Every structure is written in C-alpha cells, then in structure tokens.
Amino acid sequence: xxxxxxVSGLSxxxxxxxxxxxxxxxxxxxxxxxxxxxxxxxxxxxxxxxAGARQPGSGRIMFDGRDLAGLRPDARCRLGVARTFQxxxxxxxxxxTENVMVGAMMHHKRLPDARAAARRYVxxxxxxDKADAPAKGLSTGQRKRLELARAIATRPKLLLMDEVTGxxxxxxxxxxxxxxxxxREQGLTVIMIEHNMRVIGEVADRAIFMNxxxxxxxxxxxxxxRHPDVIDLYLGDAAHG
Length: 241
Ligand SMILES: Nc1ncnc2c1ncn2[C@@H]1O[C@H](COP(=O)(O)OP(=O)(O)OP(=O)(O)O)[C@@H](O)[C@H]1O
Prior knowledge:
Keywords: ATP-binding, Nucleotide-binding, Transport. This protein is α/β, with parallel strands linked by helices.
C-alpha cells in the first residue's frame, strides 16, 4: 500500500539559513511517528510545510496520493490534514464544546449536528465534565485535550501533534498516551513532535530525529535512543541539563 504521507527532498530557507534541508521520509497509514530533535532542528517548520502554513523552496509532499503543492491550509485540512499547536489558543470566552464545533463545522453545516458531533469529540478526549465550561478556565492538560478534540473534529486522516505532553503534569501523561493509541485504532495516522522518550517509547512505531534541518536518524524508538549522534545531541543534553 502506498504511504499516506511521502515527503521527498523538502527544503526551505529563512534568510539564507536552511530550516529544513532535503528532508525525505514516508509515513504509512495508521502509523505513529515521532519527530524529534533539539531546538531549532526544523520540526515545527516541517509541520508548517505539511499543513500548508509555509511553502517549501523545493521538494514535494504527497498526501493520500495527491501532491499538496500550492494548496492552502484550509484545502489541506479538507483533504484530511489537521494539526495541534504547541501553544494552544482556544477562543477563551467560548465553551469547550463551542470551541470544538469550530472544527466540526467543516463537516456539519447545521449547528445542532455540529454541536452533537463536537460533544462526541469532547467525550472522546475526556473533557465531558468541562463540556459547557468556558475554555479560559482550563488547565494546560485540559487545553491540550481541547486542542486535540478541535483538530480531530475536522475528521483528519493525518494528525500533526505538536508537543501534546509538553507542560502537562506527569500523572496526566498515561491518559494522553492512551488517547493517542485510541485515535490510531480509529484509523488516524499521527506525526507527533515529542521530546519525552517515555512517551515516544510507549506510543510511537518509529521516530525521526532531525538536527539543523537535516534528518540524522530514523528507526524504532529503541534504535533512536541508542543512536550515538542522538545521544550526543539530545539525550546527552537532557541527561546533563
Ligand atoms: N519565520 C522564521 N524566520 C526566520 N527563521 C525561522 C523562522 N521560523 C523558523 N526559523 C528558523 O528555522 C530553524 C528551524 O526552526 P523550527 O521552529 O522549525 O525548529 P524546531 O525543531 O521546531 O524547534 P523548537 O523545538 O525550538 O520548536 C531555526 O533555526 C529557526 O530559527
């Protein structure tokens, strides 16, 4: 079967500096792939390129058999690309359900239908008890869950998750891992920017490690964890800092 995502030779520069350079990788359907690397490695830029927030200088992104070149983010979202952001920005005054309705409106034009669908996603991410609460009162972990619900309400095939475990308390992490697994069982393919090796080891099938815009390692989480360059660049830093 052809992969859901095929990135080939993708490059983009900012002010003469390569943020992403000749990046090539593929992601199969229902696979969970972790995108790793130190600050400035090019992870977020890669998400921008796949989601259409930025256009590459060169290279190609095939999604579900289609070349995404030139398509705007909303067109890519309709094709099935959704993302969550590291810094969540819900509509503060709207309720949790209303925030998720914004995503659900992509497939439900009637408000009652969008509301009912949004409720289901709110329950799926474990926020049922906050369904009618304003988004502004949510904790960081709850905001990350809301962000996920909003994204999956667009019924994506591919979910780009930016540090969903970042900034949440340790005891919430197993629940988040469980949620990502459940999303995959429902047919989602996931690329996740993630730093937490425990999370990666438990949930990712594969990991891609970038540094200075370049892919330097790819393999199972266990392979990545013992890759000398990775240890040097990342685990070494983490161990020392
Ligand atoms: N809009 C921009 N203008 C100029 N340089 C940029 C821009 N966006 C990113 N860069 C640069 O591109 C490189 C890759 O940045 P990117 O944000 O993709 O890294 P990252 O791996 O996501 O890092 P982090 O873990 O800190 O989020 C960095 O050197 C960054 O400074």
